[in-house]
Amino acid sequence: MTISPVKPHLLSIAIISAGLLLPPQSTYATVAGGVYAYEKGNYQQARAEWLPYAALGNPNALYNLGQLSRMGRGTEQDFIKAEAYYLRAAEKGHVGAQRNLGTLYYFGRINAVDHARAFNWLIKAATSGDIKSQLMTGTMYFNGEATEKDNIRAYAWIFLSSQSGLTRAINALDKLTAVMTPEEVIQARNLAPTLISNQLSPDDVGLMVRQQEADNPPSSTLNNIIPETIAPPISETPPVGHSAADNYRVQIASFSTETTAKKALKILQDKFPKLLDGRQGNIEYVDLGKKGIFYRLQLSPFNRKSDAQEYCRKLQENNQNCYVIKSP
Fold first, then answer.
1. pTM for this one?
2. What is the largest CA-CA distance in the chain?
3. Cis bond before residue 301 (omega within 30° of 0)
4. 277-325 tens-digit pLDDT
5. d(CA 293, CA 257)
6. Is residue 18 over pLDDT 60?
7. Whose CA is closest to 236, among 287, 198, 284?
8. Which of 65, 208, 218, 327 has its CA 20 to 30 A from that of 88?
């Protein structure tokens, strides 16, 4: 039998093609592995694990690299690089990237404030059910930023955001109600469900880095209703007989004042009395320097991370945003 020799250039093509089928870096490098490294504070390792996946167009890897560039973790803080990573992920339908891209433009992190580009991305994320984007979109409608001022649409978007229990949205809704007629409120509430996409594409939050910094709220007639981009210390007395070690906490939200954080805790306790039974509410004071002081609302204690994750999952099933952190 005669064996035909393989031409060198064909061999090169075969090798390159086979290489494309191999997992990036090693069989042990994954997007989730990078998130684990990030949670341990190994930012450079996390970045190294995400880079090859980002090169292949993985939206979560792109988003996570955007987070690192935005926060200056494992690399220099660079909003332009963050924009580039977010943009690639956003174009693939990544809702978190769409929201963060919108906030970069809204707050002028790249160059000047660009409400038109901000609105373009925020309304995409809002339509997919992102509650913070819904609040910001509603605010832009109220202020007439990059769109005509429209109190009906403003109310509708903010109403959708408020349904998750987001305190800023609830407060904003109260302010809007005061300047609208009962007929306008009814019209807005009827409009709200039609604004959401029937084909929602939620992100896989287990593969995403959580935001750890805040943007200052914009000046508007509805003061301070824009949520910080971080999701959240005066501790209440822990329940008698609760012996779980305070190793992990479930973080709910971040607020600009301690009073607002306390009100949010009260709302949470009223909304989920059974879920919060036996849990301690914590308001953690955080000074972010030039970015300001924030009060992070957390629930504790949780001995194991898996317990905290399961608890957070139950909250999310009830449309309450949260995520798990290591206790301070």
1. 0.60
2. 90
3. yes
4. 778 888 888 776 666 677 888 998 888 888 888 888 888 888 787 888 8
5. 8
6. no
7. 284
8. 218
State in Å, rounded, how far the first CA of the chain is from the last one: 72
Tell me which residue of 230, 254, 227, 226 sits closest to 142, measured CA to CA: 226
In words, the CATH class of domain 230-326 is: alpha beta
117-147 per-position pLDDT tens digit: 999 999 999 999 999 999 999 999 999 999 9
Other beta carbons less than 10 A from residue 115's beta carbon: 19
Cα separations in angstroms, 248 against 27, 213, 320, 326: 30, 20, 18, 5
pLDDT confidence of residue 236: 30
Q: Give the residue among 106, 144, 150, 152 at the shortest CA–CA distance from 125.
A: 106
Of the CA atoms within 13 Å of residue 303, those in its CB half-sphere come to 4
- Please, is 307 exposed, middle or buried when counting C-beta atoms within 10 Å of its C-beta (0-12, 13-18, 19+)? middle
Q: Where are the domains of the chain?
A: 129-195, 230-326
Q: Are 35 and 207 in contact (CB under 8 A)?
A: yes
* The dihedral formed by the CA atoms of 262, 267, 273 and 278, expressed in degrees to the nearest 10: -20
Between CA 80 and CA 87, with CA 86 as vertex, the angle to 5 degrees is: 90
In degrees and rounded to multiples of 5, residue 246 shows phi and psi of -85, 70
Q: How far is CA 164 from CA 125, 258, 260, 287, 296, in A?
A: 15, 21, 16, 27, 17
Q: Which two tokens stand for residue 225?
A: 């209703």
For residue 127, what are its two tokens?
């339509």
